[in-house]
Amino acid sequence: MWKQAIEEALHKTKLNIERFGDQFPHVSENDTYQLNPNTEWTDGFWSGILWLSYQYSGDPAFKAAAERTVASFKQRIENNVALEHHDIGFLYSLSSKAQWIIERDEAAKQLTIQAADVLMKRWRPKGQYIQAWGPEGHPDNGGRIIIDCLLNLPLLYWASDVTGDPKYREVAEIHADLSRRYLVRGDDSSYHTFYFDQETGEPLRGGTHQGYSDGSTWTRGQSWGIYGFALSYRYTKNPLYLETAKRLARYFFERLPEDNVVYWDFNAPVNAETKRDSSASAIASAGALEILEHLAADDPDRAFLEEGIQKSMTGLIKSYTSPKDAQGFIERGSYSVRGGAAPDDYMIWGDYYFLEALVRLEKGIHGYWYE
């Protein structure tokens, strides 16, 4: 089942190389991806799909297309295009760092270190956190962290490993600790976002930007936490991160609906109109696969996680994969239900994590969050 799903995804990717040209897919409208000239926070996912496709198949067409995206990311950083946010890890881990991991290309390595330096500009020493969005001192976003940032931290851990400079790792660990303390609730659910006083770092309140309500659990946010804390454990071996990843995963998989693909928020009222988020199920599956890498054979959580992955991935394949020549891999992702932005469409990150989970299940190929 995994192999067939991979082959279908690679077939669509080959078609998409021609369809997209030098543009980058973001989310879809009427089953067609909206393209941009490498200006969105999501553009690394297309690069990551191309690298995974090449690593799995060995087809040089995927390699050539992936290398072209890295050239675009080099221009983006040189021209400082749309980089004033924390999603630098999403952009460069899956593009230039992927090229370094696969090809040991020195220029790709140096570009990725440059990207880590850009991310470090988001560090706010007064508050001791990485600011998610906007310029320093912004009245709404100046003191805000969001759970998504956990997937950007691997860029900093990696930068310390390859440069020998501890500053990147120190910032990543401080931010991971803060996220664990304030974004993860006592019942193992999560806030999407948390606010701090910009001058003192005093915690103010939890909230949401994309979830159903401030106190609800946005499913994609929960999945970012699953994968993000598991990756922080890989780099630091801090057992608290692995424990937290397992807790978040248990909360997620215990709440799967009948078809095993989650709704957009665990607290949203469920009716015939309630939106799904297939991308959250894909991310959670990929994150749970990472957790399994660190569990002993007799760990009591192993069987539960394996069952959750099996249910989620089977549910995606059976009920949510797109037609043969479609642009996206999985249907019914949601970008921003609250904001009315692509609430029931293809998401390029959903496609990426779906393929990442599949190739890990089939061939043991992981993504490009670590070497």
UniProtKB/TrEMBL annotation:
UniProt cross-references to Gene3D superfamilies, sorted A to Z: 1.50.10.10
Transmembrane regions: none
Active-site residues per Swiss-Prot or TrEMBL entry: 87 (nucleophile), 148 (proton donor)
InterPro entries per the UniProt record, alphabetical: 6-hairpin_glycosidase_sf, 6hp_glycosidase-like_sf, Glyco_hydro_88, UG_Glycosaminoglycan_Hydrolase
A molecular-function term among this protein's GO annotations: chondroitin hydrolase activity
Annotated substrate binding sites: 87, 148, 206, 208, 220, 224, 336
Pfam annotation, one family: Glyco_hydro_88
Keyword set, alphabetical order: Hydrolase
Biological processes annotated in GO: polysaccharide catabolic process
Similarity comment text for this entry: Belongs to the glycosyl hydrolase 88 family.
Name the record gives this protein: Glucuronyl hydrolase
Organism (species): Paenibacillus whitsoniae
Phylogenetic placement of the source organism: Bacteria, Bacillati, Bacillota, Bacilli, Bacillales
